[in-house]
């Protein structure tokens, strides 16, 4: 290191084009840039504007962070012109075309690696071919897994031991073996590909992901050691994976502008949103949001509305525009009870579209978070010290729910039991009674609620300390950067 003091590390960051993966990857690039590393984010023309303002702000502060745009082969892969993200796929059947387009990015990436010769590439888990592409040029690839150690450990347990195959039905309880805690699941909570559908295309893709993970330099985790120490140890020791927890990465967004502009443009002015929350008592408001790709039927939205009204607690409810039918005005009565918005005037705020989630969670009026248990949302709730009403839908969300409710004990479930991909209509409707019961338990101020709130608040403080200088995540990032410097030396 001392012999090359002037060489600056250069790291590529390559997220998959979906909000839940791009947002934390951009935060990670900013963390590296803030530590003196030259950071280049690779994306496509229509995705760059989603975070270009954030990157510009960091550049103006003197940090070396930039965006490199490569064309996205939408039409060549059988997608509509301009379809450059999972969020913009018009037909669920086209998801395989999207993955085909991702694979077609290998050649332009290799050309870029050859031209610029970065010292490392941090690439999304869903870009497994980047391990081989980087290896061609002797460049280490770090995998970004946008989830928890816990969920990776549960997935590994289910793949190794297949305990669900010893059950007679999808509703029979089984335990995931070999884990630090006794984690109970039922078959209907598991992804299709875990349940042994060998012809499942996504299952084949996940196998490629696992193989590429094993051959990569290591795994970058948006988590912090103190949150799930037993699972961080299990992942690295029992499963033999090299990993650096450097999160919660969302905490690099410190000022109001960063928080308000994270992700898409919000459907509500941040000052209007803050003003509404300012008028409420501390810990009195329930924030309801199910991420960027979740879809609910009108019948399910109606159950949520009825439960929120019956609970009697103030709420901010985010309903995504593309979840709703073609015309909100024509369709309003189908998913909202008659006169709902008039009755909820001043007590409930409905945001139709993207919401400034971090601003809402961090506000002192917010006392609970109804979430789909996507890892970004879960970790943002934990970082804000807010307990949760859990409603998992797909991906690894049922595993994350177990972490929240059973291991950390900072949440209560609505009783969701059906895993269904984001593109499929759900068979099961979660009834208002289950939703209302979980809301009343979390927001009602009883002893159990107070204990959950106290534990959540404590974790929020630990999360903030983890990313400060001398914190565990800060130290992990320091160690990783130093290791990458040493890795580079023999090459030069």
From TrEMBL:
Top-level taxon: Eukaryota
Residue spans crossing the bilayer: none
The enzyme's E.C. designation: 2.4.1.-
UniProt KW keywords: Glycosyltransferase, Transferase
Upper taxonomic lineage: Eukaryota, Viridiplantae, Streptophyta, Embryophyta, Tracheophyta
InterPro entries associated with the record: UDP_glucos_trans, UDP_glycos_trans_CS
Record's protein name: Glycosyltransferase
CDD domains the record matches: GT1_Gtf-like (cd03784)
């Amino acid at each position: 290191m001392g012999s090359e003091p002037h060489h600056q590390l250069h790291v590529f960051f390559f997220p998959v084009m979906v909000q839940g993966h791009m947002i934390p990857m951009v935060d990670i690039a900013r963390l590296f840039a803030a530590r003196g590393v030259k950071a280049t984010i690779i994306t496509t023309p229509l995705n760059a504007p989603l975070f270009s303002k954030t990157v510009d702000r960091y550049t103006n502060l003197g940090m070396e962070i930039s965006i490199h745009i490569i064309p996205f082969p939408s039409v060549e892969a059988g997608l509509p012109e301009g379809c450059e993200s999972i969020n913009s796929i018009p037909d669920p059947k086209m998801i395989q075309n999207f993955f085909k387009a991702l694979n077609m990015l290998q050649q332009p990436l290799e050309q870029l690696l050859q031209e610029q010769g970065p010292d490392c590439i941090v690439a999304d888990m869903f870009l497994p071919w980047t391990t081989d592409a980087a290896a061609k040029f002797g460049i280490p690839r770090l995998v970004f897994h946008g989830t928890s150690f816990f969920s990776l450990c549960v997935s590994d347990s289910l793949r190794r031991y297949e305990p669900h195959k010893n059950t007679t039905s999808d509703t029979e309880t089984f335990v995931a073996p070999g884990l630090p805690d006794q984690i109970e699941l039922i078959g209907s909570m598991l992804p299709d590909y875990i349940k042994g559908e060998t012809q499942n295309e996504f299952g084949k893709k996940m196998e490629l992901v696992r193989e590429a993970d094993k051959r990569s330099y290591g795994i970058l985790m948006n988590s912090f050691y103190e949150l799930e120490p037993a699972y961080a140890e299990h992942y690295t020791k029992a499963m033999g994976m090299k990993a650096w927890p450097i999160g919660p990465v969302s905490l690099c967004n410190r000022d109001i502008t960063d928080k308000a502009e994270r992700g898409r443009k919000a459907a509500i002015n941040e000052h209007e949103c803050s003003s509404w929350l300012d008028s409420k008592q501390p810990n009195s408001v329930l924030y309801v949001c199910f991420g960027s790709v979740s879809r609910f039927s009108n019948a399910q939205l109606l159950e949520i509305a009825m439960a929120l009204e019956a609970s009697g607690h103030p709420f901010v409810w985010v309903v995504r525009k593309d979840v709703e039918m073609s015309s909100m005005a024509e369709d309003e009565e189908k998913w909202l009870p008659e006169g709902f918005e008039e009755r909820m005037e001043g007590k409930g705020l409905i945001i139709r579209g993207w919401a400034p989630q971090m601003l809402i969670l961090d506000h002192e009026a917010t006392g609970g978070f109804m979430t789909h248990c996507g890892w970004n949302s879960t970790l943002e709730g934990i970082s804000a010290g807010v307990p949760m009403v859990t409603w998992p839908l797909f991906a690894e969300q049922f595993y994350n729910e177990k972490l929240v409710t059973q291991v950390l004990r900072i949440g209560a479930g609505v009783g969701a039991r059906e895993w269904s991909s984001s593109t499929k209509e759900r068979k099961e409707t979660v009834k208002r009674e289950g939703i209302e019961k979980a809301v009343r338990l979390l927001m009602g101020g009883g002893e159990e609620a107070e204990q959950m709130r106290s534990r959540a608040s404590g974790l929020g403080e630990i999360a903030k300390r983890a990313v400060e200088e001398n914190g565990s995540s800060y130290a992990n990032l320091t160690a990783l950067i130093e290791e990458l410097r040493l890795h580079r030396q023999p090459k030069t």
